[in-house]
Structure to design on (691 residues):
């Protein structure tokens, strides 16, 4: 118990510090992009959010497989926590992406030019469906089982969606080449640091959210025992 | 035939079965009575391999239900409180279908025998949905016996039947049990419970609270015992 | 062979039940006509050439029709607890998956076969081309593979009719995207080489999702 508390403390401080540094790097250290100006600074948090979203859904896949194999409910809690965090970051990625698109293409939702934005919003829908499924199933055990299966199927579909959206775009003329493929060293350093900072933040949130989920689960168990008036 | 030791089944945080011990020998007819929610259906569904036990030992013919379910399924027939038949298919088509998925050799002959046994020959080409509740129940029993099981599990077979249909069902069960088939039946009707069985058990709050031989048991005695063990929860 | 025999028994009884009642076919025929009428009215005022929107209309109709069929197919097993009857039988649960999957594949294909001539006449386009039929078949396998698994999940939820499309649509989106692309390519007379990669993509989707659904189906249907 004391050891896990220490890990939490370390992660709390680490994520707080690294986010501060990331903010400094993004707004002060990184040079202003020549053609797009300050709007380009969205890029650092936008891509980092998208990465955390994707990574979180990968964790859900792993949690789902582990749950189905061993039946340990903690894995289900991890999978659910990861979806909730992943959705938050994916939503951030969609919103920042949309703002960026408005500045770049003067459209909030450039279907043709920015397939990646479409892809991220499909991820959002997929995992909203995951949460909806959980809300509509009776029984904790069955809920966990169905969610685990859907988490697996959903993640397997992601590369297919990615490829089809990419190919779909290819048949249209490419208007703009994506910026940022050849980043200046200071920009690259900022970008990589943001990725790391967001990943640390993800793990911190996951730890807290999973612990909360486990406690809620235990509380449910105690309530049930009180209700039925049984000792064991 | 059936061995159950320390069986526990929980759904999430809710316990349906808390600690069940049960022993049924070859050819025995056991009736389990208990109020709604006592765990009767859960127990039967575990015996039928439809549910996995949370913990505890369940053996049928010496085979563990958790690991040897395929072999066990060949030996058991399960009559659920639902009919498990396709309403759009005819009586005969339903039985032939189940015969095929149970690998029954010479399905046609087996279906003929069963239709005679349950008295549904005249309705063999009618869609299952046109049958009365009593006939559906008899079809359901024929379906459960398609593969000549050595253990028959009946979940509340009398529910929803009128007097005549219930009497026909009783006679049918009598014929079947005469063929030295082991039977486990659940019911909440105390009178029906004592009719055919050798042993009667009371299940309440997920535990077998009482077990008695049916040799010299009168309905009055049994009713008293039942309310003694169950009545504290459902006062009348 | 016993495995195959059981799979065929499951498919067989679905087909017999449908041939007897013809509920699915009659309702699908009306459904197809309605969809076409609605689409024509909602597009015709703006679109000059129907051929431009035909692939989209075709696949949207197929997706909706598939959803209706998938829901109905599992609902039939839920009636009278028949699914329990299947689980009680001494067979591998994958036999149930493949039985229902093949049944769904047959029914969805039959519905599509019913709709294609109607579309051809009303759009004044020849849609009965071997390459198009192949594309439709590959796409339908994808629908049936994932749809059978997800409908088994959806029937056990509240609001099951809504749940299936919510779960299914985001997963089969790649199939819809690629099949619509290929259909457009075929109708525009684009040479095979330009859309062959889409067909390979569909085959890959079908194989992967058949495998994933087969492996996870057991967890969906256990007690």
């Amino acid at each position: 118990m004391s050891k896990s508390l220490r890990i939490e403390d370390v992660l709390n401080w680490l994520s707080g510090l690294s986010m501060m540094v990331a903010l400094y790097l993004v707004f002060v250290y990184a040079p202003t992009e020549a053609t797009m100006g300050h709007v380009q600074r969205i890029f650092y948090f936008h891509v980092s959010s998208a990465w955390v979203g994707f990574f979180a859904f990968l964790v859900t896949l792993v949690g789902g497989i582990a749950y189905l194999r061993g039946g340990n409910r903690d894995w289900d809690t991890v999978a659910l926590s990861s979806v909730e965090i992943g959705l938050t970051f994916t939503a951030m990625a969609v919103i920042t992406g949309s703002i960026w698109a408005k500045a770049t293409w003067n459209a909030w939702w450039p279907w043709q030019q920015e397939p990646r934005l479409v892809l991220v919003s499909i991820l959002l829908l997929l995992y909203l469906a995951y949460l909806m499924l959980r809300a509509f199933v009776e029984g904790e055990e069955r809920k966990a089982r169905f969610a685990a299966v859907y988490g697996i199927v959903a993640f397997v579909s992601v590369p297919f969606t990615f490829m089809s959206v990419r190919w779909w775009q290819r048949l249209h003329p490419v208007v703009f080449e994506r910026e940022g493929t050849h980043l200046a060293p200071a920009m690259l350093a900022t970008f990589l640091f943001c990725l790391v900072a967001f990943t640390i933040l993800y793990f911190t949130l996951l730890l807290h959210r999973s612990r909360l989920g486990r406690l809620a689960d235990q509380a449910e168990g105690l309530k049930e025992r009180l209700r039925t008036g049984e000792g064991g | 035939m059936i061995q159950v030791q320390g069986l526990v089944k929980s759904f999430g945080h809710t316990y349906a079965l808390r600690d069940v011990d049960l022993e049924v020998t070859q050819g025995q007819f056991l009736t389990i009575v208990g109020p709604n929610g006592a765990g009767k259906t859960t127990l039967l569904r575990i015996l039928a391999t439809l549910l996995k036990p949370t913990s505890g030992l369940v053996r049928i013919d010496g085979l563990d239900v958790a690991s040897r379910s395929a072999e066990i399924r060949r030996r058991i027939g399960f009559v659920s409180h639902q009919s498990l038949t396709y309403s759009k298919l005819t009586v005969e088509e339903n039985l032939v279908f189940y015969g095929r998925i149970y690998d029954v050799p010479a399905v046609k002959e087996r279906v003929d025998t069963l239709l005679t046994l349950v008295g549904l020959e005249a309705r063999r080409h009618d869609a299952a949905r046109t049958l009365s509740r009593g006939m559906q129940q008899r079809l359901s029993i024929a379906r459960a016996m398609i593969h000549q099981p050595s253990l028959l599990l009946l979940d509340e077979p009398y529910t929803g039947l009128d007097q005549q249909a219930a009497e026909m069902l009783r006679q049918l069960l009598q014929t079947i049990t005469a063929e030295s088939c082991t039977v486990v039946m659940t019911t909440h009707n105390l009178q029906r419970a004592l009719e055919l069985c050798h042993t009667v058990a009371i299940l309440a709050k997920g535990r077998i609270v009482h077990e008695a031989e049916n040799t010299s048991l009168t309905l009055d005695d049994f009713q008293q015992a039942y309310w003694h063990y169950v009545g504290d929860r459902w006062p009348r | 062979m016993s495995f195959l025999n059981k799979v065929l028994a499951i498919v067989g009884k679905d087909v017999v039940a449908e041939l007897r009642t013809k509920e699915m076919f009659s309702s699908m025929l009306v459904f197809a006509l309605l969809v076409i009428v609605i689409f024509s009215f909602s597009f015709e005022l703006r679109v000059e050439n129907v051929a431009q929107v035909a692939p989209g209309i075709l696949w949207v109709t197929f997706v909706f029709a598939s959803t209706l069929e998938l829901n109905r197919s599992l609902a039939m097993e839920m009636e009278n607890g028949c699914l329990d009857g299947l689980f009680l039988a001494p067979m591998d649960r994958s036999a149930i998956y493949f039985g229902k999957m093949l049944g769904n594949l047959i029914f969805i294909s039959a519905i599509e076969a019913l709709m294609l001539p109607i579309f051809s006449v009303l759009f004044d386009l020849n849609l009965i081309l071997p390459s198009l039929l192949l594309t439709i078949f590959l796409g339908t396998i994808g629908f049936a593979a994932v749809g059978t698994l997800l409908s088994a999940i959806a029937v056990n939820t509240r609001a099951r009719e809504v749940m299936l499309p919510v779960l299914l649509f985001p997963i089969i989106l790649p199939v819809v995207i690629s099949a619509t692309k290929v259909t457009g390519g075929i109708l525009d007379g684009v040479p095979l080489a330009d859309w062959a990669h889409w067909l390979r993509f569909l085959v890959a989707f079908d194989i992967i999702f058949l495998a994933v659904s087969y492996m996870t189906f057991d967890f969906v249907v256990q007690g």
